[in-house]
Amino acid sequence: MTTQAENTVGFIGLGQMGLGMATRLLESGQSLVVYNRTQDKARPLADAGARIANHPADTATKGGIVISMLADDAAVEGLFDDQLLARLGPGGLHLSMSTLGPATATRLAERHKAHGVDYVACPVFGRPDAARAGKLWLCLSGPASARTRLETLLAAMGQGVYEFGDDPAAANVTKLAGNFLIASAIEAMSEAYSLAEKHGVDADAVHQLLTQTLFACPIYQNYGKAIVEQRFTPPGFTLRLGAKDMRLVQDAARAAEMPMPLASLLGDRFLRMLAGGQGDIDWTGIAADQRQAAGLISQ
Amino acid sequence: MTTQAENTVGFIGLGQMGLGMATRLLESGQSLVVYNRTQDKARPLADAGARIANHPADTATKGGIVISMLADDAAVEGLFDDQLLARLGPGGLHLSMSTLGPATATRLAERHKAHGVDYVACPVFGRPDAARAGKLWLCLSGPASARTRLETLLAAMGQGVYEFGDDPAAANVTKLAGNFLIASAIEAMSEAYSLAEKHGVDADAVHQLLTQTLFACPIYQNYGKAIVEQRFTPPGFTLRLGAKDMRLVQDAARAAEMPMPLASLLGDRFLRMLAGGQGDIDWTGIAADQRQAAGLISQ
């Protein structure tokens, strides 16, 4: 029993992504104690052998590991309070897999350090199906010894780990840069394909050419297909989450005192769509906003 | 001699791209008569067996084929005048491989038709090295019978042909859509990598992660590498040509009465760089403008 408890890892946050990741960990033989604000979402994990905690701090054991996959910076800062960090205590480790701003990562790392807890950032690339299949791409940064300790857990969740050194902020900057590139690609395809459509050219034929040649990569192939087919529900990643990430990108640019004109354009695009009540569709839905602006959808 | 002359194809425009394409045609056994405003550029082709014409119209034979690869719409409209088209005459064919606006293609097709000449649009994707190696991607549209007639020539120049129907404007819209996607990717990487750099994160490490996973495709891999290495000369495709294409994209959007906010942003970026005297560097040089705006290059 002692060994079992010592090896048990905490997991907080069972949204679409967290649920898939936690399920993979259980499948790999990892014992878990899980917490979610809405307890119902933890039910499938309990059936698969996880213990359900009634309070976030109950996921922590002295010197153990807690993984978090939460919606935003405020959720992570709110849940990883002094109570939880005291329960983890010296030798404890928090593997923070949410997409957070670099300033938040720095602040969290300092708070963790005061309790002797290592803070490791590991935001992920991939949709819920990739999370469920253990095929995420992982961006890792934090103290070197803590990174080594996580190898088995990360191998269960990802198909590859890219390391960015000791500063937990670095992995978050990288993740934001990646999400910004994805949103930019969605914007560019939305504009290009609507131009084709308005000129009477088959957007799918344009998409086939471009994604079989110069842009033969997953983002253009998969997101472009959703754009051509105008398939924006169910969302793999909601516009609301995309808007949150664009805000984080713009905050990071402001903190570094540098302009990012395309990030500003995307920030406005997302805000207009949120204002229009479209926060819950997939972020490829940018194409719908563009088609409406182009007069391809009647108001 | 008659057969030889009948089979000889005209080729007008021996810039970096045209020279490579014409060389490939000669290598494939095609006899050529070539014209370039600056005759010196035709010298290597003469050595390889091409005949040099002193006047554009001298590249045309009755019912034959003339290929053009020129810098812009005005050059094509200027050279393919009534004199040249009368020389080509009924059964003649003009294979127009420059990147032109769709409105220009439509206007040229009408003018050609008045002389009984088929106008076929076939803009290409690929840099000068791809042109030289016969590895271009070809976007083809125009009358079906004329397209069939071109199969052997196109096979010598490209690694793949994508067809867009009978309307010559369609291939040009497709090509503009593609160049717009490339410029958008350059802009996005320029902003993302400068964000990483300003936050002290190794831009090359970010580039490696993204282009080995989500963006594992030629445009991101090759152009991103140039951006990370800040290698903007010698140009594969100049900023001045990029600016011309963005103008064509914006003209096509205006003609279709639709906004393209990212195209507008790019148009302004290119104009600012032209104003700064940077027209002759590669268009990945957008990254230099972004790094300067971010305070990463001293003024």
Give a brief outline of the structure:
Chain A is 54% helix and 12% strand.
Task: Provide an overview of this structure.
Chains A, B: One of its GO terms (molecular function) is oxidoreductase activity. Chains A, B: One of its GO terms (biological process) is organic acid catabolic process. Two copies of one chain form a homodimer. Chain A has 299 residues and is of the alpha/beta class. Chain A folds into two domains: 2-166, NAD(P)-binding Rossmann-like Domain (Rossmann fold); 173-293, N-(1-d-carboxylethyl)-l-norvaline Dehydrogenase, domain 2. The first copy, chain A, is built from 15 helices and nine strands. In chain A, strands 3-2-1-4-5-6 form a six-stranded parallel beta sheet, sandwiched between helices. A three-stranded mixed beta sheet of chain A has the order 7-8-9. In chain A, strand 2, helix 3 (43-47) and strand 3 form a beta-alpha-beta unit. The interface between A and B is large, with 65 and 64 residues.
